[in-house]
Amino acid sequence: xxxxxxxxxxxxxxxxxxxxxxxxxxxxxxxxxxxxxxxxxxxxxxxxxxxxxxxxxxxxxxxxxxxxxxxxxxxxxxxxxxxxxxxxxxxxxxxxxxxxxxxxxxxxxxxxxxxxxxxxxxxxxxxxxxxxxxxxxxxxxxxxxxxxxxxxxxxxxxxxxxxxxxxxxxxxxxxxxxxxxxxxxxxxxxxxxxxxxxxxxxxxxxxxxxxxxxxxxxxxxxxxxxxxxxxxxxxxxxxxxxxxxxxxxxxxxxxxxxxxxxxxxxxxxxxxxxxxxxxxxxxxxxxxxxxxxxxxxxxxxxxxxxxxxxxxxxxxxxxxxxxxxxxxxxxxxxxxxxxxxxxxxxxxxxxxxxxxxxxxxxxxxxxxxxxxxxxxxxxxxxxxxxxxxxxxxxxxxxxxxxxxxxxxxxxxxxxxxxxxxxxxxxxxxxxxxxxxxxxxxxxxxxxxxxxxxxxxxxxxxxxxxxxxxxxxxxxxxxxxxxxxxxxxxxxxxxxxxxx
Length: 499
Ligand code: MSP
Hints:
Helices cover 50% and strands 17% of the residues. With 499 residues, it is an alpha/beta fold. It folds into two domains: 300 residues, 3-Layer(aba) Sandwich (Rossmann fold), CATH 3.40.50; 136 residues, Orthogonal Bundle (Isoleucyl-tRNA Synthetase, Domain 1), CATH 1.10.730. The strands form five sheets. Strands 5-2-1-14-15-9 form a six-stranded parallel β-sheet, with helices on both faces. A four-stranded antiparallel β-sheet has the order 7-6-8-10. α1 packs across α10 and α15 packs antiparallel against α16. The radius of gyration is 27 Å and the shape is elongated. The chain starts with a strand and ends in a 12-residue tail after the last helix. The structure holds 5'-O-[(L-methionyl)-sulphamoyl]adenosine (MSP). The site of 5'-O-[(L-methionyl)-sulphamoyl]adenosine has 20 residues, from β1, α1, α7 and β14.
C-alpha cells in the first residue's frame, strides 16, 4: 500500500495549546486514521517550533516573573542562578509538554513529535543549509526592513495598518542587519510550474490562486539568518548568526524522518491554516528544490477559528484550551464538535452555546439514542445477529474525507444515523411483540417475527457501517458501538448535557 506522510505545522511554544492548534492537528489525525484503516503506510508528524525572538522574549518574561525564587540578590541586583539559555530551554520544555499532553487528551495518534531544539534536528538543519550554500543559493548581504516579531517575518509597507502588523495589531520594528540571503527568486518559475501542473497541489482552489498570483508578482530573496537573535541554530559557516526561525522550522518536515530513519520524504499531505500558507507553498519548496529534493505533493489550508470575529491568540487573550472542551463534552464529543462546526477551509466563529446544542442534538439524541434503541430491542426480542467481520464503510463519507471535506463527511454519517432513526419511527418494531401475541395463526406469527428480525438486522448492519465510518473521527465511540453490537449490552454513549 502506498505511504502517506502527513504533517501538521509545528506550533510555537510561546502559547499554550488552544483549539485552533487542536483543529489542525485533529484533521491531520482524522486523515491519518482514515488511511490507516485503508491499509496505507501512514506516518503522522507533529511537534513544536522552539527557536526565535518571539520564543526568547516569551520565555524570559515568564522566567523573570515566575522564577523569582530561583533568582538571588547579588549586591542589590537580581541575578538568575540559571543562564538565559537554561531559562528559555526550561520554558520550551514546559510548553512543548503541554502540546504533547493536549494531543494525548484529544486522542491524537501521531507517529513522531519533533522539537526544533532537539540537537538531532539542529544537526540536520546545519547539514541541509550547508548543502544549499554549496549549491550556490546562499549569499551574504545587508538587510533593512520592517519586522513583526509576532509573525517572525519582515513586512512590506503596504501590508501594514497604521504602521502595525494587521495580524498582531502591534507596531513593526525597523531593523537593519548584515545577514545571509537565500536565493528564493531563483525558484519562482519552477514552483509555478509544479503548482500549475498539479504536481504540487494546493487546496482549496482559492488559496492556490492566491499563491499563484503571489508567485507571478515576483519573488524576492529572503534573509535566511539573523544577526541579533541568539536563541536559534548557529549557521555552520558563520557562528555569529543564527538560522531564521522559519527556515529552521520548515526543515523539520525533512529532518524528522531523517532522525527517525524513515524513508518517507516528501510529505504527501501538509495541513495548516491560511496564515502560514506562503511559507509552505513558496519557501519550503524552494529550499527543497535548491538541493534537488522533491516538494510536498499536497498542501491543505484551512481557515481560522475566531472568537467574536478575532483570531484566537495569546496576544489577544481570547483562547479556549482543548481541555475545556474535553471536560464538558468528553474526548470524542470535543473531536466531533471541533470538526463539525463549520466547513473545512472557511473561517468560523466559535460559540460555546452552539456546541452544547449540537452535542445534545447529534451525539446524545441522534446517535446515542439510536444505538440504545436498537440494542434494547434486539435484546428484548432475543434476536441473534452475528457481527460482520469487516463491515462496509460509507463510500460517500470516504470520498469526502479524501477531498478534505471533514465536516461534510460527518454530515453524511449523521444522515445515516438520522435515517435509521426515521426507519425505526416508521416501522415501529416495538409494536411487533404485541402483534405476534395477538395473532392466532402460527404462520402469521412466524411471518411477523421474520419481519421483525429483518428490520432489526438491517438496523444492526447500519450501526456497523456508522461505527466503522466514524472510526477516524471518534475512535473510542466507534469501538464502543462495535463492542456493544458484539456483546449485545447497551451502555449510554453520550450523557445529555443540561445547563
Ligand atoms: N511555528 C509556526 C509554524 C511553523 S511550521 C513549519 C506557527 N505556529 S503557530 O503556533 O502560530 O501555529 C500556526 C498554526 O496553528 C496555524 O497555521 C493553524 O494551523 C493553527 N492555528 C493557530 N491558531 C488558529 C486559529 N485561531 N484557528 C485555526 N487554526 C489556528 O505558525
